[in-house]
Structures are given as structure tokens and as C-alpha cells.
Predict the structure of Helix-turn-helix transcriptional regulator.
Amino acid sequence: MAATVDCLVELGWSGTTTTVVARRAGVSRGAQLHHYPTREELVLAAVAHLGAARFAEARERAAALPDGPGRTAAVLDMLAALHTGPLFRAMLELWVAARTDDALRAAVVPLEAEVGRETHRLTVELLGADESRPGVRAAVQQTLDLVRGLGVSGLLSDATGGREERRRRHLLADWARHLDTRLEA
Amino acid sequence: MAATVDCLVELGWSGTTTTVVARRAGVSRGAQLHHYPTREELVLAAVAHLGAARFAEARERAAALPDGPGRTAAVLDMLAALHTGPLFRAMLELWVAARTDDALRAAVVPLEAEVGRETHRLTVELLGADESRPGVRAAVQQTLDLVRGLGVSGLLSDATGGREERRRRHLLADWARHLDTRLEA
């Protein structure tokens, strides 16, 4: 599973063949094909598996988040980390490949929806957001689309220096202040 | 140029070979290779060309935007259209492919930066935003990262029905109200 996601991150969807993954993972092709007959099944299983592990880890780390002032900013930092790390990049490879591949798309759409719901739930919980109040649900969704956008913006520019990371931190610190007002309004 | 972007949108980066594009455009391989010796050069030229055309078109359409109340919402609709249409999808194919291809990346990074600057300029102009005032530049950048995130969110789900489009409209209408407050503050 880890070797598959590593391949996606390093080589992209087109470079992630079952042969390359089997070699990297040190497993026989027979054993691999027994569990995952196709590249699509292998990659989907790997992304779903590592996604679940990453959420579990995020929930554990969430226990260490500060209470009171600074909590919203800390939650946004955590969300930004989830959207700039290797797993986000692996998922983006999969979403983009699925756009032009009907069979892959049929499998990826429910996975994307599940990841979206789980991220939303985690965010609401960590922010202590009361979605029954007007505007709160929209504020949470905008936050998630913003960090997704920032993740895509960092795709190429993160590697070219710390400038994009500074821009992201600045925008999120500013967003945290406004979000606090919107959650309390 | 148009045939190249059509291929990217329909077939993705991996399906966009010079042979496929030449056949679709009805040009000889010789003529094509004379102008664009590699797939990278062809695709970059096409995306840059259509990007410039799309900006020119957006500036023209901007003349028809309403003044006064409703203008911000209309500008956001226009930005959302720029980030959900075929050109955005073609660009995303290119950004994602460039992530794992060093030669392509070297060419794509400046193009992405230019597109980013141009989009920022257009947005500031259309919103009449005064970036010398505190918080205004951050609000404009958040707007652009938000629409970029919404564009990625719509990548797979836009085709599965109007639900994602309704979500996008709702979030942007809500954001337009907050953005107005922040631009005037």
C-alpha cells in the first residue's frame, strides 16, 4: 500500500504500473495480482487505506491542539498539512486520471465523496462549529475549498522555495481571524 | 492549438500525443513537427495561446458586468467559470503532469506564475479592489485560491449532476457578501 502511494507521488499515475509497485514493495507479481488483479484496484485500495490511516493520525494529533485563542489557526495549519502532503498529491493524481477514464472514475467518485465527508466531519468537530447556525456550514465548506485550492497552488511552487509556503501561512492566519468571527456570529 | 487543448480535456496528458493532435487538427506530421518538435512544446504553446485568448475574452465580457450591488457576485461567477471550464482542466492536466516531469516542470512553472499574476490583476481590476488597504490583498488571494479549490472539487462531481454546481453557487454568493465587507472595511 505504501509503495503504491510512493509511486503515485514520485512517478504520477502514468508511471504507477503494477510491475513498478511490485518491485518497489518487494512482493512477487503472483502475490500482487492475487490480491489486486488490476492497477486501478491496487491504487484505489492504497489511497483508501492510507487515507484512513492519515485521518486516524489527524484525530490523534488533534488531541494536542490548543484550546481557546489560536485553536482555529492550529486547525487550519493541520488542514493545510493534509492538503499539501504526499497523500493529497497521490489523490490528485487519481482524481485527474479518473476525469478521462470512465472505469476509474466510477470507482473514484465514491472515494472522493467519502474523503470529502470525512474531512468535513473532522473540521466541524475540531473547530467546534455549530452548523445549525446561519452561514456556519458555508464558512466550513469555503475553508475546505480554500485549503484544496492552496494545495493545488503549492503543487509546483512548493518545490521552488519557501515563498508559496509563506503566502499560504499568511492567507490562513488571516482566514483564521475572519473564520472565528463567522463561527461566533 | 484548439485541437491540442481539446485532446488534453478529453484524453488527459497521457493521451495527448503529437500523432493524435495532428490527426485531429488535420495537419501533416511534418508541418506539426516543424513548428513544435516535442509534445511538451506543442502543449505549452497551446495552453499559453488559449489562455491569452480566454483572458482577452474575459476582459471583453467584463464590460457587460453590472455596476453597484451584484457586481462582486457577477465577478465571482466569471472567475468560477474560468476555473471550471475546459481550459482550467487542460491546465490542471499540465500542472499535474509537470509535478513528476522535471523538463516539463521547468517550462510550466513560469507559465503558471504568469497565469496566476494575470488572473490576480484581472480580479483586482474587476472588483475595484484597493490593495493598499489592509487585508484587501489577502481577501483577493483567498478568493482566487477558493475558486481554484472549487474548480478541483468540480473535476469529477460536475459530471454527476447539478449538485456540485448548486453548492458552488451557494458558497460563492455567500463569499460575495463577505468579500464586499472586506473590500470596503
